[in-house]
Amino acid sequence: MNRNDAESFLYHEAALLDHKRFDEWFDLFCDDALYWIPANRGDYDPREHVSFVYDNMTLLKERIGRLQGEHCHAQPPPSSTLHTVSNVEVEPLGSARVRVRSNAVIYEFRNNAQRRFCPLQTFPAFCTHELREEDGHWRIASKKVVLLNADGEIFDLSFLL
Amino acid sequence: MHRGATVCPYEKGEAKTFTCPYHGWEYALDGKLEAVGLPKGYNEGEIDKGQLGLREAAKVGSYRGIIFASLNEVPDISLEAKLGPALPILDAYMDLSPTGEIEVGKSGVYKHAYRGNWKIQVEGSVEGYHPIFTHHSAFETIGRTMGINPKGSFTGSLKTGLHGRDLGHGNNICEIYNYTDEQIRQRYPQAFIDLLKDAHGEKRAMAALHTRFNLVIFPNLAILEYQFRVTRPVQVDLSEVRIYHTMLKGLPEEFSALNLRRVREHEFFYGPAAFGGPDDYVAFERIQQGLVADEEAPWVLLNRGYATEQVDAEGCRYGDLTQETQQRAPYYEYRRLMARSAEAA
Questions:
Q1: Domain around B43
Q2: How far is A71 from chain B (nearest CA, A)?
Q3: Residue-level pLDDT at A78
């Protein structure tokens, strides 16, 4: 996988998220994958430090089901997101495995009829994807999203980064 | 202090002194003023370094390692008297650790913010009425992935034996679970139970293992199963909530799974991306939006179960945890303090 391939992969992933095609996004992940958003900046061991998100695929499927269901009170109205991806670098990790680092800026907006001046939220993030080739397709073995403001006050992250 | 500027912008780290960036005033770690910038410009008697250190909290006390400070007024009661019936509850929290100590915040801090009054979160920390409604989706996931049904405590049957309790001086508690011996054996390895008994004695060990609660220490500290929660008013309709995760300190390596469970279960429910917390904060913001929209509606209802409230042997009011005894508790203290300051004025 070269940088061009990696960019295409990340753009495709971003498009699935931004068009709310969450089931297809989920299918990008390997069965044993990890979706990780650390809490607080710093190289913390997730076994000894809480994260914002530390999902195996069982929990990620539950998270998506919650967003698609009727009882996620944080989400009506649902978030719209816009991911921009840049600064892509590819590091080979042996056969059929690569690490892809990128910067992302994720914009999030909810059109709440009962609140004026709904704030647009902006989340710049350092992203690391580990990708694995399975049956001729590249899949996500792990996705780590380190928010630039992980140490700051955060109102809500009840959507997919 | 000179102009009153803050002198430390870091949350943690090491320093030998604190120096103000404006005029170079330098303070020792104990707050004493060590040196001022360009001292020749001060004439004899213009400043007294002994009087110009960093301000001390008016009163400081501690219990089981929790340090309480009052910044601007000496409280009219001692810390022990203020905590009163909350003391054995704090003991139970600490005694779950074989060393009798927990570590607060080393394993992570969530800094939540919401656009609502700070009191909504303080009430929400002991709210036994909302879980089956607000947290329906989280409970569904818990049921599917962990094979347990957390709804049982919150059904409102009035028969769970779990109570909301007014502990006096505004402190209050919502009793979430009272684990049976069988449930304790399911939650903890026997060797750990034995370790706790050896460390603290049978009675204290079992008190720690049986109980699970949400405790509020007036005005703005809440202690929950795996967290210390401090709610800070920023504006009348903007609040910050710091959720400090807690771990059992000095846990022998063979029981490290217990601390790992504290991490995973906590982050599942709490924090801005979790399955529980975000649903609460939306409810808090909606309360704020609704209340400011109608100045003709001056009251919120906190009267659930008021007529059937009982009083325990320690003189604490209590009712079913889904009733609102615990949320009413801070307002008795609030009224007392406000009336006292009105008299003083």
A1: 1-56
A2: 5
A3: 93
Contact flag A50-B107 (C-beta cutoff 8 Å) = yes
Question: The CATH number of the domain where B27 resides is what?
Answer: 2.102.10.10
Residues B1 and B35 in one domain: yes
The DSSP H or E segment spanning B269 is: helix B256-269
Query: Does residue B321 register a pLDDT over 90?
Result: yes
- CB distance from B272 to chain A under 8 Å? yes
Q: Could you give the CA distance from residue A121 to residue A105 in angstroms, rounded to a whole number?
A: 10
Same domain, B43 and B102: no
Per-residue pLDDT band for B187 (boundaries 50, 70, 90) equals very high
Q: Mark whether B32 and B13 lie in a shared domain.
A: yes
Q: Give the tens place of pLDDT for each residue, A52-85.
A: 999 999 999 999 999 999 999 999 899 999 999 9
The reply to whether B238 and B93 lie within a common domain is yes
Contacts of B138 in chain A (CB under 8 A): 66
Mean pLDDT of chain B: 94
Which residues does chain B have within 8 Å of residue A73's beta carbon, measured at their own beta carbons? 134, 137, 279, 282-283
Third-level CATH fold of A3-147: Nuclear Transport Factor 2; Chain: A, (3.10.450)
**Residue B134 forms contact with A (CB below 8 Å):** yes
* Contact status of B291 with chain A (Cβ, < 8 Å): no
Between positions 236 and 255 of B, the ones with CB within 8 A of A are 240, 245, 247
Same structural domain, B244 and B280: yes
Query: Locate tokens 């005029």: which residue?
Result: B23
- B126 vs A95, more confident: B126
B175 and B261, same domain (yes or no): yes
Strand residues in chain B grouped as ranges (E): 18-19, 26-27, 33-35, 59-63, 66-70, 102-114, 163-168, 171-178, 211-217, 221-224, 227-235, 238-248, 310-311, 317-320
B16 plus B71 within the same structural domain = no
Q: Give residue B148's pLDDT.
A: 81
**Rounded Cα distance, B64 and B57, in Å:** 20
| DSSP designation for B146 | H
Model pLDDT, residue B74: 66
Instruction: Tell me the ipTM for this assembly.
Output: 0.95
Is there a single domain that holds both residue B2 and residue B88? no
Q: Is the peptide bond before B189 cis (omega within 30 degrees of 0)?
A: no
pTM here is: 0.95
